[in-house]
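wait is this the right file?? whatever heres the structure
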């Protein structure tokens, strides 16, 4: 006759003086199934929470980073910004910026070229209402150097010679093109000031928004390096012109 143990809440049947192996095995199997079910439920809940958090992070990332990029590119019609330039101007992490640029490019809001990233013409009007962070608003720039571009030198040649170049601690940002000329931009490593090269018709102006004495000195050094590059281009062009005249003669 079988005896039911009163102290066993699972009602495992045993014979007097010995355990029933089949009932013990059945109890263990049920216990394992229950534990597995609990573990799966926990994992499903964790996956759902992670997915929801990821989606919210994606939406938040889109609202913040994408709007910053569109606003910056819309500041000046025909502006181009390099990847590094956008990183420095907007203070974005490399991966976050890459994701935002890929999204905007897939949506057809921006386009990429050898000069950098540019806002599509159809999107320039719609992005005008976006506000830029205060730190990105253009400060007052002061002229450092001015140069007259000689006849025979195309402004596109100067732009090509400077486009994408770094000058010591002065990092390239991007290029802006308008009906009257170009503006090329650089920023220092500390992100405390910019240097702009404005080409308007036959004049070239180098300017900066550096404020502190230390930044002003660094800006002047960087401007001189940029000026040297321009001077080298003009000299090379002059030598080619002289050689051409001698060859004809």
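ok assuming it is, sequence goes like this
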């Amino acid at each position: 006759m079988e005896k039911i143990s009163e102290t066993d809440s699972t009602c495992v049947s045993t014979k007097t003086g010995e355990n029933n192996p089949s009932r013990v095995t059945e109890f263990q199997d049920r216990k394992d199934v229950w534990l597995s079910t609990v573990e799966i439920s926990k994992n499903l809940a964790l996956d759902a929470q992670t997915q929801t958090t990821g989606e919210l992070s994606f939406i938040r990332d889109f609202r913040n980073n994408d709007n910053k990029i569109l606003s910056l590119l819309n500041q000046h019609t025909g502006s181009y910004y390099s990847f590094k330039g956008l990183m420095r101007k907007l203070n974005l992490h490399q991966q976050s910026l890459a994701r935002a640029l890929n999204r905007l490019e897939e949506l057809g809001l921006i386009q990429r070229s050898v000069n950098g990233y540019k806002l599509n013409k159809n999107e320039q009007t719609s992005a005008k209402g976006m506000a830029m962070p205060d730190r990105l608003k253009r400060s007052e720039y002061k002229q450092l150097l001015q140069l007259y571009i000689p006849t025979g030198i195309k402004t596109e040649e100067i732009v090509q010679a400077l486009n994408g170049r770094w000058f010591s601690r002065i990092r390239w940002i991007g290029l802006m093109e308008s009906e009257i000329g170009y503006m090329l931009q650089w920023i220092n490593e500390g992100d405390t000031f910019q240097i702009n090269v404005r080409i308007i018709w036959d004049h070239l102006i180098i300017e900066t928004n550096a404020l502190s004495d230390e930044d002003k000195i660094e800006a002047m050094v960087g401007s001189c390096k940029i000026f040297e590059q321009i001077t080298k281009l003009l000299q090379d062009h002059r030598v080619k012109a002289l050689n051409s005249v001698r060859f004809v003669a």
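The radius of gyration is 34 Å. so i think its the right one actually
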